[in-house]
Specification:
By secondary structure, the protein is mostly helical. The protein is 72% helix and 0% strand. The longest helix is centred in the last third of the chain and has 28 residues.
Length: 251
Amino acid sequence: MIIAERKSKNIYMRRSVISIAVILAVCTISVHGQVLKNAQKFVKKNINSVGLTQDEAAAGIKEALSNGINKGVDMVSKVNGYFGDQEIKIPFPAEAKSVEEKLRALGMGKKVDEVVLSINRAAEDASVKARDIFVAAIKQMTVTDAVNIVKGSDDAATRYLQTHTTDELIRQFRPVIEESLNRVNATRYWSDVMNTYNKIPMVKKMNPDLTDYVTRKAMEGLFVKIAHEEKEIRQNPAARTSDLLKKVFGK
């Protein structure tokens, strides 16, 4: 009886350790501390020793990332998804900060505000298109990719997504952003602001690529929200909504 109880406890402890390590690999938030790092090193050598197979680890990572993507896209694609969230709100382009300051000084702050609102609306409008690109990248993830993420650093999953989706996101997302900028009149507001600024005597003429800027900032915002959802799965058992997630990340 006592031996069986001890054996049960040992199995439970080993399963807990493997769950922690998988979570650390998926989560995009860096977790410091020698104890956690030692646990991670231990599990790298024992991923198959406590009933969690490589296929299950891979499937769990894919499901967690898919959930994060779906929830993240849902958050940012609604009205004020970007504009109403100070963490990811897209500001006036940094390289055009002098434009913003000069125009506000001349009493044209309303035009600048129109630009900021419109570029955030464009990001909200276009961001739903990113879902399929992310999902396709996850489906292409091999078991080896997933296991390498498990064995990698604490931000391995985020770096995987960035490495495997950034070029494709830019390629597919840019024309969608451009269309959205036109639809919400951001292009017109931007042209009005830049034309007004460039007519001011003695200023250096400029016209940053608005489409490229909004495309990249919209992508950054998406990654931020996906990271939050991954963290939620790690910290909140209620967020583990399937038997597979419960097995991989612990009940």
